């Protein structure tokens, strides 16, 4: 396991080296470590989880290069090629591809969560945990800066009926309302739910402080 993951880390590190949007190599490592932590409590295949975590954001790199939305499903040929290149066990390729394809499901989106396998559910939780709390706040503002998204547009309503990854929010703070503040209730595993609680509370306090300072109240 260690040898193939080392090879995979080396490959993916070079691919994401230029990322400044919060989807960098350190994000991938945090998601992998969180996924493996969740696996210890919830079960699942550790090798599939580790590889899926390292590969889950390849579509973001294509987005950075092309400037258009690129779904996880569209990245599967690149994911498959990397698995083959590092000699990842062939019998587990399909499981990794499945987790990568469906890791961006949300209960508050139109399609909802459709998967039931523990590896994909854990990957969803691990990725979402890195999107909330102090790390999530930092990453969200990094993404906004990298893509020219303003911090806050108070004149724009926060009224998205359902979340859609292909539609960018008008401001960073809008993203908190459309997605990040909803992730605590989106957790799949009991361990993930417990881990999300403190991060959610920290994020709520940040948003309240941000708005108070924006309005000159503090």
Structure description:
With 218 residues, the protein is an all-alpha fold. It has one domain (2-214): Hypothetical protein af1432, CATH 1.10.3210.50. The chain has 10 helices and no strands. Helix 1 runs parallel beside helix 3 (46-55) and helix 8 packs across helix 10. The model has no long low-confidence stretch (mean pLDDT 96).
Question: What are the key terms here?
Answer:
single chain, 218 residues, mainly alpha, Hypothetical protein af1432, 0% strand, globular
Sheet/helix structural class: mainly alpha
Order of helices and strands: HHHHHHHHHH
Nearest-angstrom radius of gyration?
17 Å
- In total, the number of domains comes to 1
CATH class value: Mainly Alpha
Into which percentage range does the β-strand content fall? under 5%
Q: List low-pLDDT spans.
A: none
Label the CATH architecture: Orthogonal Bundle
Mean pLDDT over all positions: 96
Terminal residue distance: 52 Å
**Helical region count?**
10
Helix content range: 55-70%
Number of β-strand runs: 0
Major sheet attributes: none
What would the principal axes of the Cα set say about the shape? globular
Stated plainly, the CATH topology is called: Hypothetical protein af1432
């Amino acid at each position: 396991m260690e040898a193939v993951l080392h090879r995979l880390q080396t490959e993916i590190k070079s691919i994401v080296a230029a990322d400044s949007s919060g989807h960098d190599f350190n994000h991938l490592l945090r998601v992998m470590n969180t996924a493996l932590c969740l696996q210890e409590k919830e079960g699942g295949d550790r090798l599939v989880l580790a590889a899926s975590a390292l590969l889950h954001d390849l579509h973001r790199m294509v987005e950075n290069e092309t400037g258009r939305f690129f779904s996880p499903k569209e990245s599967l040929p690149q994911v498959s090629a990397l698995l083959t290149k590092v000699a990842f066990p062939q019998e587990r390729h399909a499981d990794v591809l499945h987790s990568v394809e469906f890791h961006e499901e949300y209960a508050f989106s139109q399609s909802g969560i459709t998967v039931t396998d523990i590896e994909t559910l854990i990957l969803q939780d691990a990725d979402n945990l890195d999107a909330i709390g102090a790390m999530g706040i930092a990453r969200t503002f990094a993404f906004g800066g990298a893509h020219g998204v303003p911090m806050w547009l108070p004149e724009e309503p926060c009224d998205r009926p359902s979340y859609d990854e292909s539609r960018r929010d008008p401001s960073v703070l809008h993203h908190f309302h459309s997605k990040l503040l909803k992730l605590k209730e989106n957790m799949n595993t009991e361990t993930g739910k417990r881990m999300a609680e403190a991060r959610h509370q920290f994020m709520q306090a940040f948003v309240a402080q941000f708005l108070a300072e924006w309005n000159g109240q503090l």
